[in-house]
Amino acid sequence: MAIVYKAYQAGMDRYVALKILPRYFASDPQFLGRFEQEAKVLARLLHPHILPVHDYGEVDGYTYIVMPFVESGTLADILEGDPLPLTQIRLIIAQIGDALDYAHSQGVIHRDVKPSNILVDQRGNCLLTDFGIAKMVEGSIHFTRTGGIVGTPAYMSPEQIQGEELDGRSDVYSLGIVFYEMATGRPPYRAETPPAIFVKHLHDPLPPPRTLNSALPEAIERVILKALAKKREDRYATAGDMVQALQAAMPDTPHTEVATDDETGAVITGETVVEEPEWEAVETELLVTPTEAPEPATAPVAEPPEALGVRSATERAPALRSGVVMRRVTQILSRPIALGILAAVVILVILGVVIGFVFRPLTGALDSRLAFVSDRDGNLEIYVMDEAGEVTQLSRNAASDADPSWSPNKARIAFASDRDGNWEVYWANTDGAELTRVTRNPASDTQPAWSPNGDYIAFTSNRDGKREIYLAGPDGIARVTHTPGDAESWEPAWGPNNTILFTSNRDGKRDIYHTNEVGEVVRITHTPGDGESWSPAWAGGGDDTAFVSNRDRSQEIYTLSEGGTLQRISRTPGGRESWEPAPAAFGELIAFTSDRTEGLEIYTITEEGVRQVTHTPGSGQSWSPAW
Fold first, then answer.
1. What is the pLDDT of residues 419-433, one digit of tens each?
2. I need a labelling partner for 448 at 20 to 30 A (CA). Which of 156, 173, 301, 598 fits?
């Protein structure tokens, strides 16, 4: 129904996917209402496995949605008639199931879960897309009922076929069909016409998956059969329940790292703690501008015929507010090629002039500037030291500013401040201009950590009664951790593949954990005895996670490699200590705070040794380094 373009957004130096719906829909008020409803739903969904929306609107009868462009393809491209490995099935079901659980918690049902609506990126991570037929349940039951039967026959639930009011269990059924197809190589019901498929969904027994794939474990088959029960009350109540049942039925156990202490030779075994991330939408508070830059597009743009009364793309270039250069990647279905190209050119030029993206470009390159906190002027402020050792004061406020974190291109710094009466997260340009408040909550929001792609800021907050990890992103704020009991989670740091490292006392004392790609919380340090480990930090592109530990009685800096090797890298003399490690993304260099002199100062450590970086004048001190 929609035309999808690969578009280049010059202002952000990135590719996006541009979805344009046929113009004749604009004359249908019901469709326009549905489109606006869909766009608003998408704009408030914030989840790592749901494709987000950058922008949407209507231009001269053409409705459009702008989304991230995902390289690779869809699950439908991967399914070629053969079963997938169980480990791959588990990953896909876990990611899409969690995305559906989150959408359902926001009052949204997808209605068209199928392989072609599951994008798979180059790392194998999944994104649920095309909520074009999704409806909000809350406050809009009549609108949902009058929307007709929408969906794909092979993946529709019995209640959806019968036009009944839907809930999340309809999506559970559709995901069960996808599960069946991944496990057997084909969907359970096939026929020559949609009505014939409808009859099979409603009345035919489900062909047992093991009749098509005898290698499938019986426990896995039982999960599929329950998900595909014809009566919704006989299915899993939620997609999360189905994910948990699949994980329990898997014949293998999740892989965890095993570390060896290079000083004692003791084995530090990994332990997996499963915690399903129950994402919570909070009011929108920030637009964080992405900064990951693809290579510029070089494909030529066709010139529109003069008869259309439209100037060429080159002539229009100065008027483009967004500098978008678009290249069509799909054909208009059921239309001659020439007409498709002509319509595409008209749409591209109109959209290039009128749409305009609200994102601001960020420029800058990786450098060795160091941000830190100091009270050298009598108040806690953020400072920046350049490559030559010159120190510049970034923040100036009577309140306290702390916890600096660079954006990936070092054009901005996020930090925590109590300048508005309680601790909140802010960011500012590196010249101190364009101060923006990220969070707005009567609780305490601190310890911001900017994601490697620039889309999100992780932070610690006690807004729900105790410290947990949250994400602020383009569409609002979501809670990441749900620590059991009275335990807490804090000190977020970004790790490889957009995982989040953090400190938690969920097992009785402080240790380092991370969230992995399938929604599990995995413990990565098991500090021996009464010792503890905290303050994780990872340098983008590196192999090691740095952290602080008192496992040898004094507080020192350690690293844990991706291969599991534990190494102590600081040995502070004179009974003093070292903490707050900050690995650099360039070279083998770690900055840290230490009291090895009379006051707190920042040091760096390499294979050549330790060097003092800051020399705070007077009685002031410096700490909290950030590269």
1. 888 899 999 998 777
2. 598
Residue 528: both structure tokens together: 């021996």
* H-only helix segments in 18-155: 29-44, 75-78, 86-105, 141-145
- Same domain for 92 and 199? yes
Same-domain check for residues 465 and 446: yes
Strand order in the sheet with 554-561: 267-268, 259-261, 565-568, 554-561, 544-552, 533-538
Instruction: Please give the backbone phi and psi of residue 350, each rounded to the nearest 5 degrees, phi first.
Output: -60, -45
Q: Which residue has the tokens 């499938």?
A: 216
Distance CA 448, CA 431 (A): 19
Question: Are 77 and 195 members of one domain?
Answer: yes
The pLDDT tens digits for 60-95 are 777 788 888 887 789 999 998 899 999 999 999 999
Answer whether 296's CB lies under 8 Å from 13's CB: yes
Catalytic-labelled residue, pool 13, 112, 171, 403: 112
Element (H, E) at 19: strand 14-20
Q: Is the pTM of this model over 0.85?
A: no
445 part of the active site: no
Non-local (6+) Cβ contacts of 159 within 8 A are 165, 166, 170, 232
| 488 found inside a domain | no
- Structurally, how many domains does the chain consist of? 4
Q: Is 619 a domain residue? A: yes
Instruction: Find the domain containing 454 and state its range.
Output: 278-289+364-480
Q: Where are the beta strands (DSSP E) in 30-122?
A: 55-59, 62-68, 73-74, 108-109, 118-120
88 and 38 fall within a common domain = no
Starting at the earlier edge strand, list the strands of the sheet with 73-74: 73-74, 118-120, 126-128
Specify whether 83 is located in the same domain as 129.
yes
Amino acid at residue number 322: S
CA dist 511 → 340, 522, 547, 591 (Å) = 58, 11, 10, 21
- Give the bridge partners for 592, in sequence order: 603
> Dihedrals φ, ψ of 143, to 5°?
-65, -35
H helix runs in 265-336, sequence order: 313-316
Q: The domain spanning residue 572 has which CATH number?
A: 2.120.10.30
Tokens of 6: 């690969």
